[in-house]
Each structure stands twice: as C-alpha cells, then as structure tokens.
Automatic annotation (TrEMBL):
SUPFAM superfamilies: DinB/YfiT-like putative metalloenzymes. It comes from Paenibacillus albilobatus. This is DinB-like domain-containing protein. The lineage of its organism: Bacteria, Bacillati, Bacillota, Bacilli, Bacillales. InterPro entries: DinB-like, DinB/YfiT-like. Residues 18-150 form the DinB-like domain.
Length: 158
C-alpha cells in the first residue's frame, strides 16, 4: 500500500534523529572511510546535505514561493565529487548543522500541505515531471541506503 504524505514526511524526518546520534562519534572516525574504498562519514553526510540543499533551493522552495521549479538532472558523479571536496573544508559539527538546516527547511515547507500538493506534478528545469511525493520517495530510499552503510561502520568502530 502506498504511504501517505504524512508517513513519508515522518520517514524523511527520521533521518534527522539518526544524524543527531552520529554527533557522538569523534572527528577521527568522521574523517575515516566507512569501509575500504568508500567515503568517510563526513563525505556521506555532506553528500546528503548538499542534495537536500539543491532540492530545497531548486524545487521545494520554488513550489512554496509559487515560482517555476528549476531542478535539473545533474551529473551525479560530478555533484558527489564536489560534495566530497566541500566536506574537506568543513568540520563534523558544521556539516551536521547544515544537514539539520536544509532537512528542516524541506520538512517545514512540506509539512501540512494538502495531499494534492504532494502529488501535483511540476515541470522541472529539464521539462520533466517533478513532484514532492516523487522527490520524497527517491530520497527516503537514498537515506536508507546510506543509513545501512553508516550503521555497519558504527558497529565496526564500537
């Protein structure tokens, strides 16, 4: 059965508590690869935060303001490489703070929207369909993917 918008928002929101728990991990472990050949914990959270920032500024905020959605299909490899470079310039706490800021902005803007606004389809910057429901569906699974990786890493360092 398809999840309601409220259930999807709650699931999207739950990642905030998960990241909050990661604050107890020291900087050294935040800067170490989560497994051989993988990114560091800081890289992963930076990557998630920057995707949240992008979709907030180019999608969710535009919808809230009644403006045209400007989300475009980006080169994922390039975006993610830039996220890793950005992470190098930040501390653990600054990455976490920025993650909270953008995730909460998205949640604040979509909480309480009528169901029809969740499923409404907008044309994005590439003239493709964009909906809040589709965005949430994609990023909840993205969060779950990284959460599994992080949980495995956290178990390995305890």
């Amino acid at each position: 059965m398809a999840k309601t918008s409220l259930e999807m928002v709650e699931e999207f929101k739950s990642f905030i508590d998960f990241v909050q728990e990661l604050k107890t991990i020291d900087e050294e472990h935040w800067n170490s690869p989560i497994s051989e050949g993988k990114w560091s914990l800081k890289d992963v959270i930076s990557h998630i935060m920057l995707w949240d920032k992008y979709f907030y500024e180019e999608g969710i905020e535009k919808i809230k303001l009644g403006q045209s959605v400007t989300v475009r299909h980006l080169n994922f490899d390039e975006f993610n490489a830039n996220a890793r470079e950005y992470a190098k310039t930040q501390t653990r706490d600054s990455i976490i703070k920025q993650f909270f800021e953008y995730r909460n902005k998205i949640i604040d803007d979509i909480t309480g929207l009528p169901e029809e606004d969740y499923i409404k389809e907008y044309k994005d910057g590439d003239r493709k369909k964009f909906s809040i429901r589709g965005y949430l569906r994609g990023f909840i699974s993205h969060d779950k993917h990284h959460k599994k990786q992080i949980e495995k890493y956290v178990k390995s360092i305890q």
